[in-house]
Fold:
Amino acid sequence: MKVEKLEDMNLSRLTRKSYGNDAELEQRVSDILSRIRHEGDEALYQLTETFDKVNLRESGLKVSPAETEQAYTQVDEAFLSTVRQARANILSYHEKQKRSSWFDAKEDGSVLGQLILPLKRVGIYVPGGTAAYPSSVLMNALPAAVAGVEEIVMVSPPRSDGTLLPEVLVAAAEAGVTEIYKVGGAQAIAALAYGTKEIASVDKITGPGNIYVTLAKKQVFGTVDIDMLAGPSEILVLADDTARPEELAADLLSQAEHDRLASAILVSPDQALLEKTIQEVERQLADLPRVEIARSAWENYGAAILVQDLEEGLGLANQIAPEHFELVVAEPFRWLGRVRNAGAVFLGRFSPEPVGDYFAGPNHVLPTGGTARFYSPLNVDTFMKKVSVINYSEEALTRDAQAIAHFARREGLEAHARAVEARKK
Structure:
């Protein structure tokens, strides 16, 4: 890789990613959703056997209390302590987000307000199989618990032996998940959306997954709500000459190792820093366990971009709207007010991205693919809904009836006008 000047960059290479034939993938997902909708659990069993090579009739679809209890015996105390510390941090952060219903009493006796209510039943998707993502369990389930959701249903693909990783089960228990099912992919999303005999439908589905999961969430939206359409991981680091190449390289690779389509972008007005960091990335790649994935992401969607100054670098960051944005500069708070588009901002060299992934408290389910321009991280509001409250007094209706009726008639809705005037009489 070479340093590139901003004016010479083809930014579409960094922001437009293809999964192949999108129309073909959409149709495959649609077929899976249709099967679950019409065949229910039988299709769940068959598709899980096809895709995951697991017989759910033997291993069971739902995780039993005994399986969760056994999971606690399979994890060490250090892990359990870490999960509980992370849980406390995530709860503390998200509890500050919770809002209460409100009412405004007017002098004429009317009362206007808003009920802020938790959803009753939500589904969270946790990637699974050979990898463990207990952090995703905490980040999805704990905001729902803070919101007051009664039923938190988790789905996750089973391992080849028909079980879920003990770390995931322990995290689910610690986070207050009420039901767990050993099923993944588009079929799991369909079950949550439409319901089957074994899995009751939910009101909303959250959590990242592969392209099949993402497209399934897209197609069931409207039947249920969803959090967002999550894509490959992204990091953009804006650095000045106070940054250290070995640290920057490690931060870039922390996202590149996620996925071959992950983006890892370094932006700086310091060409020497960019060149040294490129060299450092190559050095660190040599002994990285997920070297093939990380190298593919770095070579195809990585970049080292030379800008004139930090001002221009911030403009580029706001244009790309990265999932993770690191400001590794001498005075990060000086520049924070100019950040417009980012899922999460990490300030200074002691705030590397994994701090947010696991432990600090803010949510790691973040908007990707430029959607940070209009989406927010997963939060307590994700699991709540708002209901408007209107209690008009007789005095208020008498005062406003003529105006309301006039408005209704201008829209050609005579019955609307008469509904108001009937009370005026």
